[in-house]
Design a protein that fits this description.
binds protoporphyrin IX containing FE; protoheme IX farnesyltransferase activity; Protohaem_IX_farnesylTrfase; Tetracycline Repressor, domain 2; 2 domains; binds farnesyl diphosphate; heme biosynthesis
Length: 287
Amino acid sequence: MADVINGYWQLTKPGIMVMLLYTALSGMILAQRGIPSLRIIVVTLLGLAMSTGGSAALNMWYDRDIDAVMKRTVKRPIPAGIITPNQALIFGLSLIVLSFVMMAVFLNLLAATLSFAGAVYYVVIYTFWLKRSTPQNIVIGGGAGAMPPLVGWAGVTGHLSLTAVLLFLIIFLWTPPHFWSLALYKNEDYQRAGIPMMPVVKGSRNTKWQSFIYGIVLLIGSLALYFVTPLNLVYPIAAVVLGVGFLYYLTRTLREEEGSFRWARRSFFFSLAYLMLLFIAIDFSIL
Ligand code: HEM
Ligand SMILES: CC(C)=CCC/C(C)=C/CC/C(C)=C/COP(=O)(O)OP(=O)(O)O
């Protein structure tokens, strides 16, 4: 029984979900320029947890064939035989529908629709279509993971703004260096599963260069936020320090010899710290 409960929990990709919720909360604090009401926080984050968790479950339902052949994913609940594919399908669909209804009734239709659109984007556009067909899969698919701040913003204000779009853009530009750093050292897995990730199709050198270029554009995009919404100096300082730090890791990755993945691994972990700290800096720049 405990195995099954844990299996359902794992279907939601909890680690990634927490980060997605964190970026949404950060967007909410910026939209409110302070702490929003507890009711809005709870409904928005619970709704998003259900739509992101539900779409992760549908991703695992659809990808069960490739998850079973990749070392990193073979222990997931479906390939491990803990949850059946149909259970995952019903669980994922129910969470997404419930999330939409709850947000539409208790929050507003824009937030509910954006959250639903994020789930469709991740499941249908990324998982069903792009992931198995093009090396640009995660560049375009990154848009799904960038949607939570838009949902948070809409949850608080009932509309969108240029500032919200810039938060989206920051996560969108961050996704390629985040994911490709990992894909470099998980290349064998993706090759075996036949997924056309960038390092599989274009090789590691080309992928590292592309990551570096996204890193530069990300630094510029993160600074743009400072010019569209009032923030104190903490933000641009953090954006420069973190952005230059990320570029340092990506440069070391670029310079390490073929077959060594020490800096690729470090770049992946730095990407997680980068996003967390940048969004903390946003909130510290207004509070
Ligand atoms: C298309 C977009 C993305 C792809 C393909 C992707 C891919 C991945 C993969 C494959 C891992 C697993 C690492 C492992 O199992 O060792 C991972 C970890 C992680 N990702 Fe991403 N990611 C994407 C976007 C995002 C976004 C938008 C966020 C948050 C805003 C995020 C946050 C995280 C976190 C926190 C982890 C570490 C926790 C964990 O592994 O459970 N990712 N990512
Ligand atoms: C607003 C809303 C509902 C947005 C949905 C956002 C969402 C769940 C984004 C997840 C992005 C992500 C972690 C992709 C993992 O890629 P993968 O599935 O290829 O990774 P895997 O190989 O680990 O399965």
